[in-house]
Amino acid sequence: MARVVVLGGGVAGHTAATFAADWLGKEHEVVVVTPNSKWNWIPSNIWVGVGQMSKEEVTFDLAPVYQKAGITYKQAKAVSLNPEGNASSDKPFVTIEYTGQGKAGQSEDVTYDYLINATGPKLNFAATPGLGDANGLGEFTVSVCTADHADHAAHEFAKCIEKMKKGERQKFLIGTGHGMCTCQGAAFEYIFNIEHELRKAGVRDLADIQWISNESFLGDFGIGGLHMKRGGYAASSRLFAESLYSERGIKWLIGAHVNKVEKGKVSYELLDGSMGEETFDFSMLIPPFAGVGLKAYDKAGEDITATVFAPNGFMKVDAKYDAGAYENWKASDWPRTYQNPTYKNLFAAGIAFAPPHPISKPMSSPNGTQIFPTPPRTGMPSGIIGKAVAHSVCDLIKKGPDAHLHEASMAEMGAACVASAGKGLFDGTAAALTVYPVVPDFEKYPGLGRDLDYTFGEIGLAGHWIKHILHHMFIYKAKLNPGWTLIPE
Amino acid sequence: MNEIEKYVKPYDNNFTTMVPTNFVIKMRTCKIWQLIRFIMINIKMLIVVRKSH
After folding, report:
1. What is the topology classification, in CATH, of domain A3-123+289-399?
2. What is the ipTM of this complex?
């Protein structure tokens, strides 16, 4: 009997664990280690963040789902890995610290045959003074990264609306809280939901809405932008985004590294090296992501963290980490199997794997401050990678160590993204986008890097309906309801 | 006053962007047209999902 340990219960971890349990059956054990007691459909946190959904509607308890699937569930956070075992045993293990199940604070060594690291990111609020600290979100801004954060954001947003109904003008500042952030798409969706709700509340005229982000052009989204067919042209996402911001009366500030947050004010540096300040009454700034800080030790107890993990804390996999400058980047730099090159029974999925380099072109100000989006690995790619890794691990267990590993390169997969504004079935619209491939392949698709037949986007009610369907469909799937395996990632 | 006249000001940073006309904005919420687009977008997305697995 083999034991597969999955660290993390988010999109990648939950997908990997549930498929592994389904494919391996009762002959083998699947263990999930996650500090959270609930699963969260993160894309709908945006609706929670404007008070259109409760956090209960975007979360559910993991324990009964894992019990149904025959998965051993440990509500704990992983602290360190011993991929060679220790002095008393050759069996690899992960040291965990419980956060719930009545054992909070207790440690345990969980041995494994295969380990899938899908921890997701550490929300690194501490990277920007005032944005937060080691304990998390600070007091001056809000976040929609977790359901609790989004719930808090909704309450703060409601207070602003109350003030506006009394005639008080309010300024909303939404975007990224550091020069090296990802997830611009979430902030993009949030700012348009804010705008929509203000309009619905009849107070839009009393609102100044400002976007601030580390993108070098609007519509970069951390993937270097994209092109889509429009009126006989291949139009850049920059046109698409600028058009939407203009239409809704939202001003934008780009190429910005927020370097300090204070009460009602952020300080920033721009790509041209100039410094500035922006005031706000309400601000949602996405924090930068980092690895969760797992340590690794060899059999003798020596620290081998740098062997297993990249400096940013994400796990090294089969990517080309020495590609060098932007001009040398190729689609083939991106990992295919997500297997750790040193320890073949270690895999990573979702945000937890270390990308070879960004997707957007790295840029820095004359002062040397790096200001560019880091690569997104969330949503659809995260689920696809989780499933591929689970497939590989199951084959290694069932067919032996020579089994073929399944591949899911982000340079060969697409992603669908629906950014909705509003929640009502007929009073909202959404920007529905697909991009193929996620990582541009300039050898296969010279010039634009992507296949124009499968990269498209449009705004309308149709995308809004799709967003509603995705919300219900993926929660249905994550709960392992009948037919869940038929729903694609 | 339509959205364009309301928000776009000469030589603001939104003056050089492409902005939708009232017809385009109307079509975004036209239920019949959006039903057709719903079917088309779903087909396109399913193709992308299929190509990605």
Report:
1. FAD/NAD(P)-binding domain (3.50.50)
2. 0.89
